[in-house]
């Protein structure tokens, strides 16, 4: 997909127009990050220290002596609303996939720091007790949650199933997962110290939209005469395509560790799309000379939202769910190890000395330092 | 407070009438617990094992070699709705206290297994970006969160601040916390192996309703002509009393560990009130011969709901927020150590051989094994 193939089928719809206003959230985020950073000293009273470089990374890391401890809590977001709409339209329950999505949000972030996920906790906050009364849906949620734990080889420790009438909307559920893992041996820590010019960029295939960009995707459904039942490819509805569960990448990072491949840095490509490749604070150029195939659901969204390539790649994963930065010598083996775990992968480019920028050459798009402010 | 002092001021209001239907939640809980238990084997692939006795306890524990790892995610519940109502009535922001409540839900559960809390993650899911636009409220939430982390000597690792329009109600926020800790030395593990006849029961004072029983409390407010502004004691409104932040008990459990007091078992007294004292699966009798002072807000709720003593103690904490089971020889020292941390405490009774039951002698109430089905 290139910019020129995006027909102007309608008004351009930005992420903010789709209802998420980052300007309102960000001042709070900054205040919270400052306050959080000021609590790190408490660890010394217990004989431990934080890994300071993990502040601003996707998971928080503490040095507890024999290994590092990593932890995280992550929200599914609004994907469950699509599952609810599709259930009404088709009678099918999509909550097994939704469970996998929720775990993926936590696990795929936790592994970016080099952690092995060990324990997942479930946070299932329903709008009322009656949510749990739909046995088929509840069972799908349980089974999908367990299956995702099985794939990631994590123990499901327990969790919370509150009924929150008045906070969560009636008939809805707010899903999140917390995950705790360890970085063992400590040499697996990847918070960016080892990233450098010459590294290869390996991109792991996404399975679709994953669980980011759903606000936009839902807004677009409202514009379509057939909504979620619009056929976007033969036999594939927009709703079904959106609900493809998020790929779980921890089997790949664990297999890499077992094979002795050192990951210098990694990035989970979620909100902000490919701009996440600029996540590392160093001044480096990321040159991409090969891009993965774009899942039909993402090219469809880009078309319908009238996104040019720049906007599409800055919002959606466009076929790349996770980025691994490894030495050139390990690049091909990294691809093969991922494929052996059932995850397609390509050597997409390399890291170079130079200005902080991402150059996606096949589509002639450049993102600079100003395009990503995550920290 | 005894049963006979509870005047029949109105219709009796049970917890289920207040909107929480455990029958609908419980089948899901059972299915989830079974599926979760079946994932424990994954830990062996990483060289670790679960502490099986922690299944069904308040936090999940894994043996990672040099120490145990404990983790949890906990929801605040509906207490934020009271804060929102009181803000509308008084103009004050109560979110600093609400932040403490949320952390208390996680920390007070985590410590029951003997863990030192190390890292807290924030889960703040708002009904829309505009929730974060109220700078005073957002700032109070940040400051209260940090202050509670300071009290508990935990590092605030980070968290999630999603805007979930369509899932969380407009103007509301769904608050939760995840917490990870370690049990170090491993001898601090308290999942009940050491509980036995002869142990003393020490009860730590609650600061009010904490964050359990709020559905009932809110329902009662609707019946009161002056609602949350009803004076329940000179200069104290019902709303202000309800919003007293939950006591944080980890300073006590940490001080006990430092003083060499071995806790045989403990229970966080939340939902199900004093029936939580029956949490341990063993067949033992818990004989209470002294009860703590009942916070005015709890006696008021019991009066207004027309609860007799049995129902009040089976629903609310009635002045006891946390129970510690220690040897008789350590009982007085446990009380003194708690008081030195600013938490009032009493030696309330002892554990005896006999049928599984809780005898609260000062108010002539007995709970049997059938009265608590938590596992």
Automatic annotation (TrEMBL), chains A, B:
Entry EC number(s): 6.3.3.1
Pathway terms, separated by semicolons: Purine metabolism; IMP biosynthesis via de novo pathway; 5-amino-1-(5-phospho-D-ribosyl)imidazole from N(2)-formyl-N(1)-(5-phospho-D-ribosyl)glycinamide: step 2/2
Keyword Iron attached: no
The PurM-like N-terminal domain, residue ranges: 57-183
GO cellular component: cytosol
Enzyme class: ligase
Sequence ranges assigned to domain PurM-like C-terminal in this UniProt record: 197-356
Reactions catalysed, as given in the entry: 2-formamido-N(1)-(5-O-phospho-beta-D-ribosyl)acetamidine + ATP = 5-amino-1-(5-phospho-beta-D-ribosyl)imidazole + ADP + phosphate + H(+)
Keywords, comma-separated and alphabetical: ATP-binding, Ligase, Nucleotide-binding
Single Gene Ontology MF annotation: phosphoribosylamine-glycine ligase activity
GO biological process: 'de novo' IMP biosynthetic process; adenine biosynthetic process
Pfam families in alphabetical order: AIRS (PF00586), AIRS_C (PF02769)
PANTHER family attached to this UniProt entry: TRIFUNCTIONAL PURINE BIOSYNTHETIC PROTEIN ADENOSINE-3 (PTHR10520:SF12), TRIFUNCTIONAL PURINE BIOSYNTHETIC PROTEIN ADENOSINE-3-RELATED (PTHR10520)
Protein family (similarity comment): Belongs to the AIR synthase family.
Name used for this protein in its record: Phosphoribosylformylglycinamidine cyclo-ligase
Source species: Vitreoscilla filiformis
Taxonomic path: Bacteria, Pseudomonadati, Pseudomonadota, Betaproteobacteria, Neisseriales
């Amino acid at each position: 997909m290139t910019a020129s193939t995006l027909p102007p089928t309608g008004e351009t719809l930005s992420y903010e127009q789709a209802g998420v206003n980052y300007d309102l959230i960000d001042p709070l985020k900054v205040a919270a990050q400052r306050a959080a950073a000021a609590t790190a000293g408490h660890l010394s009273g217990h004989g431990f220290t934080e890994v300071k470089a993990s502040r601003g990374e996707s998971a928080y890391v503490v040095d507890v002596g024999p290994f590092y401890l990593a932890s995280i809590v992550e929200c599914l977001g609004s994907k469950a609303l699509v599952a609810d709409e599709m259930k009404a339209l088709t009678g099918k329950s999509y909550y097994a996939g939704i469970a996998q999505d929720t775990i993926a949000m936590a696990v795929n972030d936790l592994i970016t720091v080099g952690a092995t996920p060990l324990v997942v906790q479930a946070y299932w906050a329903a709008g009322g007790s009656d949510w749990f009364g739909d046995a088929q849906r509840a069972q799908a949620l349980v089974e999908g949650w367990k299956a995702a734990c099985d794939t990631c080889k994590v123990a499901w420790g327990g969790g919370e199933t509150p009924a929150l009438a008045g906070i969560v909307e009636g008939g809805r559920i707010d899903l999140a997962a917390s995950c705790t893992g360890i970085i063992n041996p400590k040499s697996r820590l990847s918070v960016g110290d080892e990233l450098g010019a010459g590294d290869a960029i390996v991109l792991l295939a996404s399975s679709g939209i994953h669980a980011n960009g759903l606000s936009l995707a839902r807004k677009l459904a409202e514009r379509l005469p057939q909504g979620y039942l619009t056929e976007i490819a033969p036999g594939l509805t927009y709703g079904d395509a959106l609900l493809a569960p998020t790929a779980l990448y921890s089997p790949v990072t664990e297999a890499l560790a077992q094979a002795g491949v050192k990951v210098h840095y990694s990035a989970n490509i979620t909100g902000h799309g490919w701009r996440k490749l600029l996540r590392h604070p160093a001044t480096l150029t990321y040159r991409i000379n090969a891009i993965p195939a774009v899942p039909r659901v993402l090219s469809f969204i880009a078309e319908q939202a009238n996104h040019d390539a720049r906007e599409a790649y800055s919002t959606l994963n466009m076929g790349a769910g996770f980025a691994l930065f490894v030495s050139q010598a390990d690049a091909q083996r990294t691809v093969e190890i991922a494929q052996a775990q059932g995850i397609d992968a390509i050597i997409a480019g390399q890291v170079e000395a130079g200005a902080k920028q991402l150059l996606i050459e096949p589509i002639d798009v450049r993102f600079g330092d100003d395009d990503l402010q995550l920290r």
